Amino acid sequence: MNGFARAGLLLATVAGLAVAVWTFGATGFADVVSVARRIGVGGFLLFCGWSLGTFVLLGAAWLAAAPGEMLGRLGLFSWARMVREAVSDLLPFSQLGGVVIGARTLTVARIPIPRVYGSLVVDMTTEMAAQLAYTLFGLALMASLLIGDGAAVALRGPILGGTAVMVTIILAFFAGQRTALDLTARIAGRFVPAGRGALEDIRAELAGIYARRGRVALAFGFNLAAWVASGAGAWLVLRLMGVPISLLDMLSLESLIFTLRSVAFFIPGALGVQEAAYALAGPLFGLPPESALALSLAKRARDLAIGVPTLLAWQLSEARQLARG
């Protein structure tokens, strides 16, 4: 990462942090914390357990995209997905950095490099396709809000504009998979010495995976289930806080939040974007701003509770690899 990229990343992080602090302050931090505390320790642990279950679905999606790997490797693929998410959310890297480090978690487990990166591209593709389906589902649920002349009018532009940007990004990724694969492999060369010389093998593996349409469809299904499970987890948190909201409304709101987070991929953890989106969009579904921000706070705490131990375990694993030489 060059100096300009580092400076841009730092600036985006600082700006996101400022927006998050302002959003909490404008809503009333004490009110947000008061709502968040209702979840209790047991409720928070339940939320973390639910999120770990979501990682199993994500690991199953990646495993489905890797023909030749046995079901017994589900734990390994789920772990790689956790590392990928933790690096992207908690470390000052781009999303691509998290993707490459997650892939390295599989390569050090002696899974062939072509299979790792071929399955990675298919997994990312099906995950984006599943997110698009989830987003369109959410937009269909909130169609009456967007068409009417109520409070959603002010957010109609950002909602539709953000969706359009996300769709453009997804379509560009679909159309430019070869370029994306080349870029990922070049970066992977810094972590896996053989990564640069395996491009043709990876392309052949990728073609072979796409030829197995049943496995690709299975990866899409698991990724879609993970999106829905994540939204249901947010609903569970609000129920534990005593905040009433229907599951369908929650899924619609979460599809919007995920869309805006995806558009802000250049900001680590979508810091500030998530908070502002919850504060602005929550009331459209009858969710008070303090309750919406309490949910965001619970998610940030969950990311730390799961992500920090994951990163520590990953660092320990890397140290062992270096010690072995």
TrEMBL record:
It is a multi-pass membrane protein. One of its GO terms (cellular component) is plasma membrane. The chain crosses the membrane at residues 40-65, 128-147, 159-176, 216-238. The keyword Transmembrane applies. The keyword Transmembrane applies. InterPro entries: L-PG_synthase/AglD. Keywords: Cell membrane, Membrane, Transmembrane, Transmembrane helix. It is found in: Cell membrane. This is Lysylphosphatidylglycerol synthase domain-containing protein.
